[in-house]
Amino acid sequence: MLDLDSLFNLSYGMCIVSSKSEDKVNGCIVNTVFQVTPEPPMVAISVNRGNLTWDYIKDSGVFAVSILAEEAPTLLMGKFGFRSGRDFNKFQDVQHRLGETGCPVVTDSVVGFIEAEVTDSVDVETHTIFIAKIVACQCLCDDKYPMTYNYYRDVKHGRTPKSAATYHETKE
Questions:
Q1: Consecutive 10-residue runs of the chain (172 residues): their mean pLDDT?
Q2: What is the pTM of this model?
Q3: Is residue 160 situated within a structural domain?
Q4: Exposed, middle or buried: residue 167 (CB in 10 Å: 0-12, 13-18, 19+)?
Q5: What is the number of structural domains in the chain?
């Protein structure tokens, strides 16, 4: 038996992963970011190979993770999760700054950020897992809670695009 709904019991954080390519920047929503080692501090992210952000990470070898707060507006999430950076500038009208890696870090509706340099990658079917050394990170708001995928799905009634690592057809 394969009851994929059981995967909804795993805990994921909702984040905007961003990267750069020369003078261009892009970002996408991901819910698969996790710490791999404490020393040196390293993280891993999973990004769909069809995303423009994937191209930028492969090109530059760097990325930033902006950790969304529970009160992040669904319009912000939709901008990064359901539209392609090939069609418009996702960072237009979004509060952000360029971090130490040159990647954009969202500064509104987030609890913190991580910047990292890729050390390895593993292709897994439709996605690539990028393993990276943390070069900068900071808490930006101590009085807000990070948004989990469960919160996004069950409280905000958010949808999951087919390109997401956690997408699957749900039972009606």
A1: 73 92 95 94 96 97 97 92 87 96 96 98 96 97 88 74 54 49
A2: 0.89
A3: no
A4: middle
A5: 1
